[in-house]
TrEMBL record:
<keyword id="KW-0966">Cell projection</keyword>
<dbReference type="GO" id="GO:0016020">
    <property type="term" value="C:membrane"/>
</dbReference>
<feature type="transmembrane region" description="Helical">
    <location>
        <begin position="32"/>
        <end position="56"/>
    </location>
</feature>
<keyword id="KW-1133">Transmembrane helix</keyword>
<keyword id="KW-0812">Transmembrane</keyword>
<comment type="function">
    <text>Part of the tectonic-like complex which is required for tissue-specific ciliogenesis and may regulate ciliary membrane composition.</text>
</comment>
<dbReference type="Pfam" id="PF09799">
    <property type="entry name" value="Transmemb_17"/>
</dbReference>
<keyword id="KW-0963">Cytoplasm</keyword>
<keyword id="KW-0472">Membrane</keyword>
<keyword id="KW-0206">Cytoskeleton</keyword>
<protein>
    <recommendedName>
        <fullName>Transmembrane protein 216</fullName>
    </recommendedName>
</protein>
<dbReference type="GO" id="GO:1905515">
    <property type="term" value="P:non-motile cilium assembly"/>
</dbReference>
<keyword id="KW-0970">Cilium biogenesis/degradation</keyword>
<dbReference type="InterPro" id="IPR019184">
    <property type="entry name" value="Uncharacterised_TM-17"/>
</dbReference>
<dbReference type="GO" id="GO:0035869">
    <property type="term" value="C:ciliary transition zone"/>
</dbReference>
Protein backbone atom coordinates (compact mmCIF):
# COMPACT_ATOMS: atom_id res chain seq x y z
CA UNK A 1 0.00 0.00 0.00
CA UNK A 2 2.70 2.60 0.82
CA UNK A 3 4.41 1.83 -2.48
CA UNK A 4 1.21 2.56 -4.40
CA UNK A 5 0.81 5.85 -2.53
CA UNK A 6 4.38 6.76 -3.39
CA UNK A 7 3.77 6.01 -7.07
CA UNK A 8 0.61 8.12 -6.99
CA UNK A 9 2.40 11.06 -5.36
CA UNK A 10 5.38 10.95 -7.72
CA UNK A 11 3.31 12.08 -10.69
CA UNK A 12 2.05 15.36 -9.15
CA UNK A 13 5.55 16.11 -7.93
CA UNK A 14 6.97 15.62 -11.42
CA UNK A 15 4.18 17.71 -12.95
CA UNK A 16 4.84 20.60 -10.58
CA UNK A 17 8.58 20.44 -11.21
CA UNK A 18 8.01 20.50 -14.95
CA UNK A 19 5.61 23.43 -14.54
CA UNK A 20 8.19 25.41 -12.59
CA UNK A 21 10.83 24.50 -15.17
CA UNK A 22 8.91 25.05 -18.41
CA UNK A 23 5.74 27.08 -17.89
CA UNK A 24 6.58 29.58 -15.18
CA UNK A 25 7.07 33.13 -16.48
CA UNK A 26 10.33 33.99 -14.72
CA UNK A 27 12.74 31.19 -13.83
CA UNK A 28 16.18 31.69 -12.32
CA UNK A 29 19.07 29.56 -13.50
CA UNK A 30 19.36 28.05 -10.01
CA UNK A 31 15.66 27.08 -10.10
CA UNK A 32 16.12 25.47 -13.50
CA UNK A 33 19.06 23.42 -12.21
CA UNK A 34 17.23 22.39 -9.05
CA UNK A 35 14.06 21.43 -10.94
CA UNK A 36 16.13 19.43 -13.41
CA UNK A 37 17.67 17.53 -10.49
CA UNK A 38 14.19 17.04 -9.01
CA UNK A 39 12.92 15.59 -12.30
CA UNK A 40 15.94 13.28 -12.40
CA UNK A 41 15.12 12.03 -8.90
CA UNK A 42 11.44 11.61 -9.80
CA UNK A 43 12.39 9.53 -12.82
CA UNK A 44 14.76 7.34 -10.85
CA UNK A 45 12.10 6.95 -8.14
CA UNK A 46 9.55 5.75 -10.69
CA UNK A 47 12.09 3.31 -12.13
CA UNK A 48 12.93 1.87 -8.71
CA UNK A 49 9.25 1.65 -7.77
CA UNK A 50 8.48 -0.26 -10.97
CA UNK A 51 11.37 -2.66 -10.31
CA UNK A 52 10.20 -3.17 -6.72
CA UNK A 53 6.64 -3.89 -7.81
CA UNK A 54 7.94 -6.38 -10.39
CA UNK A 55 10.08 -8.13 -7.77
CA UNK A 56 7.22 -8.36 -5.27
CA UNK A 57 4.80 -9.67 -7.88
CA UNK A 58 7.19 -12.50 -8.84
CA UNK A 59 7.55 -13.93 -5.34
CA UNK A 60 4.15 -14.62 -3.77
CA UNK A 61 3.90 -14.30 -0.02
CA UNK A 62 1.73 -17.40 0.20
CA UNK A 63 4.77 -19.59 -0.52
CA UNK A 64 7.17 -18.89 2.37
CA UNK A 65 10.69 -20.33 2.34
CA UNK A 66 11.11 -23.72 3.98
CA UNK A 67 14.25 -22.71 5.88
CA UNK A 68 12.55 -22.61 9.29
CA UNK A 69 10.94 -26.01 8.85
CA UNK A 70 14.24 -27.43 7.63
CA UNK A 71 16.14 -26.08 10.65
CA UNK A 72 13.54 -27.49 13.04
CA UNK A 73 13.71 -30.87 11.31
CA UNK A 74 17.51 -30.89 11.46
CA UNK A 75 17.42 -30.14 15.18
CA UNK A 76 15.43 -33.30 15.77
CA UNK A 77 12.29 -31.50 16.93
CA UNK A 78 9.10 -32.58 15.28
CA UNK A 79 5.54 -31.64 16.03
CA UNK A 80 3.92 -34.46 17.95
CA UNK A 81 0.25 -34.08 18.77
CA UNK A 82 -0.48 -37.68 19.68
CA UNK A 83 0.95 -37.40 23.19
CA UNK A 84 3.82 -39.77 22.52
CA UNK A 85 7.32 -38.83 23.65
CA UNK A 86 9.76 -38.39 20.80
CA UNK A 87 13.17 -40.08 20.73
CA UNK A 88 14.88 -36.75 21.40
CA UNK A 89 12.80 -36.13 24.51
CA UNK A 90 13.47 -39.69 25.76
CA UNK A 91 17.17 -39.16 25.22
CA UNK A 92 17.10 -35.89 27.15
CA UNK A 93 15.17 -37.47 30.05
CA UNK A 94 17.69 -40.29 30.43
CA UNK A 95 20.68 -37.93 30.63
Amino acid sequence: MPLAISVALTFPSALMASYYLLLQTYVLRLEAIMNGILLLFCGSELLLEALTLAAFSRSPLSNPPKLFLFSVHCAGVRPDTSGQVSALEQNQKTQ
